[in-house]
Write a structure and sequence with these properties.
By secondary structure, the chain is α+β, with helices and mostly antiparallel strands. It has helices at 6-13, 36-43, 55-64, 76-80, and strands spanning 20-23, 30-33.
Length: 84
């Protein structure tokens, strides 16, 4: 296991739990430092997951937030590119 440098520790402390972007100055490759429990949740997503599987839940959340209110219908013209 590799220990964090002091500079990395300072960046993590200031990140409020968010991942920290780091760069290898030799190769210019970008990396992300994150807590192990956060990484574990990311890699636990099944390989066969499709965002389409989440559409029904996303629709339910949108309805609960009032997105099915008829007042929002007037904005549909912007999605199609046609102006009234």
């Amino acid at each position: 296991m590799v220990e964090l440098t002091e500079q990395q520790q300072v960046a993590i402390d200031a990140s409020d739990g968010r991942p920290v972007d780091v760069i290898d100055p030799r190769t210019q490759q970008h990396f992300v430092l994150m807590r192990a429990d956060v990484f574990g949740r990311i890699v636990s997503v099944p390989d066969d997951f499709s965002i389409k599987d989440a559409y029904p839940l996303m629709n339910e959340v949108a309805r609960a937030a009032g997105w099915d209110d008829p007042e929002w219908d007037s904005y549909d013209v912007y999605a199609t590119g046609h102006r009234p």
